[in-house]
Recover the amino acids of this structure.
């Protein structure tokens, strides 16, 4: 089992792919950062609209007060989809999160820094091995709604990736096991 996160993830992925080209992935989180005035609000509207169109679960976390009463340094997060499904999306104010973690000596981050992140959990063995062959951008193509969100957010056209593989029947599974013995 190997877990990589942060700036070292691309290097770790390259090493793993070099040593074990045919490896399974149980979860992959792929983030894209935006920084600009109004970035969070624009992406929030996009994600909320797409989530509503597709009938996905939408959950907003943050300061529950009205906009004019909120703490301007309190971040907000929007979750789209179900944690147990193949794809789950989160949009959050990364700059505000980092500001809360920063030490006094650190350079303060941009408060407009916004992160759009997809969490992909392949649902079976075949899909996990398929995920091991994907590039980070390909994970945005595991659902039509995540592909649409990325397309509108960045103007990218990401190829659709099928991560919902058909499971083999119990009879076929038993036969394969018997042949293996």
């Amino acid at each position: 089992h190997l877990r990589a996160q942060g700036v070292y993830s691309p290097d770790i992925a390259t090493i793993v792919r070099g040593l074990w080209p045919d490896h399974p992935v149980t979860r992959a989180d792929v983030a894209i950062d935006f920084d600009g005035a109004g970035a969070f609000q624009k992406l929030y509207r996009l994600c909320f609209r797409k989530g509503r169109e597709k009938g996905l679960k939408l959950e907003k976390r943050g300061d529950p007060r009205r906009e004019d009463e909120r703490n301007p340094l309190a971040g907000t997060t929007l979750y789209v989809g179900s944690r147990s499904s193949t794809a789950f999306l989160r949009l959050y104010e990364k700059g505000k999160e980092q500001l809360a973690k920063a030490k006094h000596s650190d350079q303060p981050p941009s408060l407009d820094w916004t992160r759009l992140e997809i969490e992909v959990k392949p649902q079976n063995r075949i899909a996990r091995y398929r995920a091991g062959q994907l590039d980070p951008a390909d994970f945005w193509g595991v659902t039509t709604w995540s592909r649409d969100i990325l397309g509108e957010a960045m103007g990218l056209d990401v190829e659709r990736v099928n991560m919902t593989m058909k499971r083999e029947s119990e009879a076929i599974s038993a036969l394969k096991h018997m042949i293996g013995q």
Notes: The mean pLDDT is 85. The radius of gyration is 19 Å.
